[in-house]
Amino acid sequence: MKRSVDDVAEKVERGEACVVTAEEMVEIVEDIGAERAAKEVDVVTCATFGPMCSSGVFLNFGHSDPPIKMVRVWLNDVEAYAGLAAVDAFLGATQPSEDRGIEYGGAHVIHELASGEEVILRAEGAGTDCYPRESVETVITIDDLNQAFLTNPRNCYGRYVAATNSSEETLYTYMGKLLPEYGNVMYCGAGCLNPLANDPDLRLIGVGTRVWVAGAEGYVIGEGTQHDPVGGMPTLMIRADLKEVDPRYLRPVVIEGYGVSLALGVGIALPVVDVKAAKDAGVSDADIEIPVIDYGVPRRDRPVVERVTYEELKSGKVEIRGKEVKTGSLSSYAMALEIAELLKELVEDGEFVPNEPVARLPRNVSPSPMPERPPHLPRVADVMTRDVITATEDEDLEDVARRMITAEVNHIPVVDEEGRVVGIVTSWDMAAAIAEGKKELSDVMTRDVITIGPEASVEEAAKKMDEHNISCLPVVENSNRLVGIITRGDITEALRRRRR
């Protein structure tokens, strides 16, 4: 069974569509199976409600008299970014107040504007010939603004990590208050209701997809920042008119000891176009596994201490290293379900119609870490060898040894059929293995490979080599795909040339 999104949209417009929430779809698929569900259900409504820090609003204030080119802008003493046109600004939800600190911020201003409240606008100007005014202070409401568009760089994670804390100190994080010695686990997201959890392959949600945003009709305008479908954590960039939102579904949040965020409700109506769509929309909380990350380790790559499901998290307790630990959520499942039910009614009434995306979102990408290198040092990409001699683990040892001798190299990365690094072998490994009579490369290669990204500094590469007592690093990008190799000799030669 297969049909188009337009076929489903036509049924919605005729008032003939069978619409269920994602929570209801779980039971339907369990009871009658995905194949029959695909025939009986037309639309599945999904939703989430929780803090979405990467949110904000573009504002146009209109021209003053005499006109001003704003170079700094404050709204209720919360600074907005003014590096745009003369009277445009972007107010970020997490920006703190200059006089009240993290107890008040951009999210509060956004909520107050959406609620029709008065806000004090203060700005400093550049004082140019065409924009002679140098300052302005006035009271505005949302009705005074020409445009006020919520434009959120990253919303609606398909799933997100849970957080715990192994340290002896209480930690105050964007995941909430984490008690010492694994005292609690905090998590986010609505589980089976999350829109992207119900479309894991990004077949139905894409650029141009209609989205319910805090009561307003909005759209997906692209993948969100830190979009990581490879790691199971896709995100969305969305836009909606702040003048049309319901403030009930857009609320400021102060996360203790951390700062301000914006709790936002987002809903998407997914058309059931085939059996796979029905199966995907039948995902349950028990099907969605997430890692519990130890925030007590102050590093970018924090360790995973356990893997749990949303079903376990929602039960109120999970087991961490043999200890029963209470869980808490920053998100509101009740609000998410309320939005899914409300969206269901809108679809049934033909007031919210699913649509075909105009473009797909990227599916084979993952975010890169920030490179840390002094400006005077070259990058790994500037030094590495790009034409790398490689092998596959099913190759004969002697064949690989001959290749190593012919190419005059001491290291050969072992890759799979998609070019991803799965191991590495050195000339020392080869000599020892041949002396011991071993035949297969898979018996010799090192599988726990230390790698580095192309944007890292050669200093970072050298530190890694020293830390692990090795003499080369395969250079990898998205999904561990090999793009080069760097050796101690490469680094030494690069630094020698730089000193000339």
Number of helices: 11
- Mean pLDDT, to the nearest integer, reads 95
Shape: globular
The rounded Rg comes to 27 Å
Percent strand equals 25-35%
Find the structural class using helix and strand composition. Answer: alpha+beta
Number of domains: 3
Offer a quick outline of the entry.
This protein is an alpha+beta fold and 500 residues long. It is built from 11 helices and 28 strands.
Can you give a write-up of this model?
The chain has helices at residues 5-13, 22-40, 106-114, 275-281, 310-314, 333-348, 380-383, 397-407, 427-435, 458-468, 488-499, and strands at 19-21, 43-51, 56-60, 70-75, 78-80, 88-92, 96-97, 101-105, 119-125, 135-140, 147-155, 162-164, 171-173, 176-178, 185-187, 210-213, 216-223, 236-241, 250-255, 259-271, 289-294, 304-309, 317-320, 323-329, 411-415, 421-426, 472-476, 482-487. It is globular, with a radius of gyration of 27 Å. Strands 1, 2, 3, 6, 11, 16, 17, 18, 19 and 20 form a ten-stranded mixed β-sheet that branches. The mean pLDDT is 95. It has 500 residues and is an alpha+beta fold. Helix 8 (397-407) packs across helix 9 (427-435).
